[in-house]
Amino acid sequence: QAGERAGAGPAAAGPAGQIDQLGLAHPGAGRAILATWHNLLDAGRLQDGEPNLAGTARAPVAMMSAATAAEAGTAEGGKVTVATDRGAITVPVQIAAMPDRVVWLPTNSAGCEVRRELGAGHGTLVTVRSAE
C-alpha cells in the first residue's frame, strides 16, 4: 500500500508478509521493498530545452535479483509491473546483485516517476508482477 514503509536496521527473522517487533518488513510472495534513487540524467527541469542532453539518459529499468524476477514470473529483459494501491509502473527487468524481494526503480525518469505514479519512496512495500 502507498505509504507503507519497511523498517531500517538489522534484519530479524520473521514470517513472510509480516512486520516483526522491530518494525522490519518481511515481504511475502509477490511483494518487495522499493529502493529508489535519481539517475544523473532523469526527467529533471534542468534539461528543459536540451533534447540532446536529455536523449542520453538511461532508459528506466527495474533492477532485482534473479530470484525476485522468477517469483514475479519474469526474467532479464522481460517487463515487470511495480505497483501500490495508488498506481503502477511497467518497465523492463534488469537482473542485478541485490537482496531478494527488493526492487530498484529510478525515482524520476521518463516513464518512471515513482513519487507521482506510485505515491511511494525508498522503503515502501510494493507488489511486483510480470507485465507479460
Overview of the structural elements:
Strand 8 and strand 9 (112-113) form a beta hairpin. This protein has one domain (18-130): Barwin-like endoglucanases (Beta Barrel), CATH 2.40.40. 12% of the residues lie in helices and 32% in strands. It has helices spanning 51-54, 66-72, 114-118, and strands at residues 18-19, 25-26, 31-37, 62-64, 79-83, 88-95, 102-106, 108-109, 112-113, 125-130. Strands 3-7-4-6-5-10 form a six-stranded mixed beta barrel. The chain is globular. The longest helix is centred in the middle third of the chain and has 7 residues, at 66-72. It contains three helices and ten strands.
Reported CATH architecture: Beta Barrel
CATH class: Mainly Beta
CATH topology: the name is Barwin-like endoglucanases
Q: What are the segments in which pLDDT stays under 50 over at least 5 consecutive residues?
A: 8-16
Between the first and last Cα atoms, what is the distance in angstroms?
A: 23 Å
Structural domain tally? 1
Total DSSP helices: 3
Give a quick rundown of the structure:
With 132 residues, the protein is mainly beta.
Fold blueprint:
Layout (H helix, E strand, L loop, with lengths): L17 E2 L5 E2 L4 E7 L13 H4 L7 E3 L1 H7 L6 E5 L4 E8 L6 E5 L1 E2 L2 E2 H5 L6 E6 L2
Parallel strand pairs: 3-7, 4-6
Antiparallel strand pairs: 1-2, 3-10, 4-7, 5-6, 5-10, 8-9
Task: Supply the key terms.
single chain; 132 residues; mainly beta; Barwin-like endoglucanases; six-stranded mixed barrel; 12% helix
